[in-house]
Design brief:
- This protein is α+β, with helices and mostly antiparallel strands and about 350 residues long.
- The chain has two domains: about 10-145, no CATH class; about 155-330, no CATH class.
- The protein has helices spanning about 10-20, 30-40, 50-65, 80-85, 95-105, 110, 130, 140-145, 155-170, 205-210, 245-250, 260-265, 275-290, 300-305, 310-325; strands spanning about 45-50, 115, 120, 125, 135, 180, 185-190, 195-200, 230-235, 255-260, 275, 330.
- It has a three-stranded antiparallel sheet with strand order 1-5-4. The protein has a three-stranded antiparallel sheet with strand order 6-7-8. A two-stranded antiparallel sheet has the order 2-3.
- Strand 7 (about 185-190) and strand 8 (about 195-200) form a beta hairpin.
- Helix 2 runs antiparallel to helix 9 and helix 4 (about 80-85) packs antiparallel against helix 5 (about 95-105).
- The longest helix is centred in the last third of the chain and has 19 residues, at about 310-325.
- It is globular.
- The two termini are about 10 Å apart.
- About 40% of the residues are buried.
Length: about 350
């Protein structure tokens, strides 16, 4: 069933998001490399020397170490120790860059394009370290840089990074991380075993990539960086249901989607109506796909809707039936762009 979720032709941004948003991580280096490439914004054919790449790469790692000291699953790392020494003022930036070139890229360059167990079909750079001491940017990265999604990608990387490092900091598997939504701040909160809550990341940043930068309902392009098309965090089953005593469940990640303003609160927007059965199936596919993938929201969704597809279908059908009884009106929307999921 999860394969139906991505049963569309993939765009370059889909390959990029697969690198960043999915798969297992044993260190945060892939996130730092992704953020560095987006920051440097190189052109096709450009060679980025390793000492040039090392500056933003090590800066991003060092910045994250200040708030979350665990940036890898291994117990020791000479590279991370160098970043810690830089934060403590014990070595200079130039010395950190030297250490980064020596130790920081040992695995991440080779592993960057691996999703699951295989490399993806498209490459955003080619490894030229052996003959030219750098990486060469491909046409694919230049095309990616020209898409409408480019402004949202840095926030998506940061959100994913924060989710992963928070699970490491709490000392639990990232697939056991329990996430809650704060409707006031619109942030996702990590909940520890003793029920302590820690702000992790913006819910928009965490969800946008999994919706491929599109409105959940009409597939209109949304963006985290452009206020004119910045999405709303929408409750698929409306907030109005809280008056029936189901507040915490309504705020569950399973029920959160990103919607364009037109669909959420435009002249023909959803407001307090119940989405159609067709849209309910789309929500099921979204949640089922995330549950079957390896990422930090998996366990939270299982706790909320169940592990098996049959449990999820039963859960959503009950919600849809009860919501119809309470709110009566059903809402449908027209897709203004081709479906993305």
């Amino acid at each position: 069933m999860s394969q139906l979720f991505f049963n569309q032709s993939l765009a370059l941004e889909d390959y990029w998001r697969a690198i960043v948003l999915f798969g297992r991580n044993v260190a945060s280096y892939k996130f730092a490399l992704a953020k560095s490439l987006l920051e440097l914004a190189p052109e096709s054919g450009q060679l980025i020397k390793m000492d040039e790449l090392a500056r933003p790469f090590s800066r991003h790692i060092a910045a994250h170490l200040k708030t979350s000291d665990k940036q890898a699953t291994s117990s020791t790392s000479k590279f991370l120790d160098s970043c810690r020494r830089f934060n403590a003022g014990e070595i200079s930036e130039d010395q950190l860059v030297e250490q980064t070139v020596r130790r920081g890229f040992n695995n991440v360059i080779d592993a960057f394009h691996v999703v699951g167990t295989d490399k993806i079909d498209h490459r955003f750079f080619v490894d030229r370290r052996r003959e030219r001491k750098g990486i060469e940017i491909t046409d694919q990265f230049s095309v990616l840089s020209g898409t409408d999604h480019i402004g949202s990608l840095p926030e998506e990387v940061e959100a994913r990074w924060r989710l992963v490092e928070t699970s490491w900091a709490l000392g639990i598997s990232r697939n056991l991380l329990r996430i809650e939504y704060d409707g006031i701040s619109e942030e996702l909160l990590a909940v520890s075993r003793d029920d302590r809550r820690t702000a992790v990341t913006s819910s928009r940043s965490a969800l946008n990539g999994y919706q491929k930068g599109s409105c959940f309902y009409c597939f209109r392009t949304i963006s985290l960086s452009d206020d004119s098309v910045k999405p709303d965090v929408d409750h698929f089953f409306p907030n109005a249901l809280k008056q029936y005593g189901v507040g915490p469940l309504v705020d569950g990640v399973w029920n959160l989607v990103l919607a364009c303003r037109n669909c959420n609160r435009g002249p023909r927007g959803k407001f307090a109506k119940v989405p159609s059965q067709r849209l309910l199936e789309r929500l099921f596919k979204r949640n089922d796909f995330l549950i079957s993938s390896h990422h930090p929201l998996r366990e939270t969704l299982i706790q909320q809707v169940g592990a098996k597809s049959s449990d999820q279908i039963r859960f959503l059908q009950e919600w849809h039936t009860n919501a119809r009884k309470a709110l009566i009106h059903v809402w449908e929307c027209e897709e203004v762009m081709a479906p993305k999921f």
